[in-house]
């Protein structure tokens, strides 16, 4: 394997890992506040549909982005009302969100576009086009550094750069601001936060709203950046893989970047090398496609160290009278 092939694999890993990274950070805010959210899959799917549909109709990827974030936010509000206001089971609410998005997107897509549950193909301004960074063309022939800058760092859509910028921003918000301190405290000991006169409900709704925005960006990227329109079930389990990456990262933003890029790299390898000959055994395409999901099971089973979730996670808060 030469250096150019390695760079291409890493470039594919970045593209494929971006929606996982955004969804992982979305789940990070929610779960740090004590709201378990397995409905990331549904939010991403809803965002992918509305962004693809609006971009197809208007020819504007930015209007599609607004619609996608709005669709994900609406499902976040549903999950927030069920989990925070009505103190329902958060896992069941998340499953309901996923089923709702799965059926709703196909039904509306077929009703609007009559293309078998998909949106029309996007092109031109309907998609987020790759951005060429300054000097990329000038240094592309420089060995190693030029190849990395031109082929790996440059040439991505704006949502990829937004996703990577969100990692240090999330770290700063959670660990260097008063809001982040209160958000983490709500996930660990909401009673003490309430005693200090801070609204637990407001903080948790804020976290759920942030989750909606980030998962909306993830879904929008799928439909208008990575692909060229919405297709049925296009999230393909990415919401669940993002949750596994979140557990793998132990609910921290910087390790979440590494975990999601690892999943992206595994998917890139499976796409490029359908069959891998190890000499003794030949790994078929089915195994390579299943590797990210196998790793997800390994992580969730606890084989990659012990991950301790926020102490008040999954528990509705009842204000003491």
UniProtKB/TrEMBL annotation:
The chain crosses the membrane at residues 12-29, 49-79, 91-113, 158-175, 207-231, 290-308. It is found in: Cell membrane. Pfam families: BPD_transp_2. Coiled coil: none annotated. The keyword Repressor does not apply. It is a multi-pass membrane protein. One of its GO terms (molecular function) is transmembrane transporter activity. It comes from the Bacteria. Keywords: Cell membrane, Membrane, Transmembrane, Transmembrane helix. InterPro entries: ABC_transp_permease (IPR001851). One of its GO terms (cellular component) is plasma membrane. This is Sugar ABC transporter permease. It comes from Thioclava dalianensis.
